[in-house]
Design goal:
Layout lengths: L1 H7 L8 H4 L9 H11 L5 H10 L13 H12 L15 E2 H5 L5 H10 L1 H14 L8 E8 L2 E6 L8 E4 L6 E4 L4 H18 L23
Antiparallel strand pairs: 1-5, 2-3, 3-4, 4-5
Helix pairs in contact: 1-9
Length: 223
Amino acid sequence: MLARIAAADPGREVFAAFRHGYELNPPVDAATLARAEQAIGARLPEEYRWFVTEVGDGGAGPYYGVLPLGAALSRLETALGSLDSLGHDCPLESDVDFGELIGQPDDWDEHLARLESDPSYEARFGELSQKYSDVPWLHGRLPIVDYGCGAWFSLVVRGPRRGTVWLDSSDDSTGLYCLEVDFMTLYRRWLDDALAEATTGTDTGQEASYGFLKYGDNPRYNS
């Protein structure tokens, strides 16, 4: 499928194709896999494990591409000082929408005006961003895809939502959202979408407030 997309998009016009070039890295080495699973205390979720061991350890994928497993581990170590977070269950069970928690107006212009005029309203978003950008909310999650603008897709590797993909946009004060799909569902939907876009020259995605949920089954995307 990647070869078909690459042939249909010689100018690399599909988003971020210039970065990954529709190429996958070789499968992950045994040492890196063992290091990750030792930190988790369990096997990686099976569909993701199959991908990195049999298909490719990162490279071509949604948005800015799939992060190699070793790079994902390094990112956690840089942010948290160790891989200890992987050995704890992820406490997330449902979406955490900062706007809903704070009472954000439905009208975007009204929201922007309130940010300008109400320091306590703006500060509350900052407080939530800081809270959810740290443990325990980082527990049991492995970063897998760079969405851009400070947001990341992560895979829950421990806890009640193990195997599901989440979008973490807490850095830009938006929230955390479950796509309600596993890694391979996300990846296959991206492949289909990228092929359609490369073939027709148009983005096949729907216009939605939660565009980052495009490849998932979260009903917010169709709201």
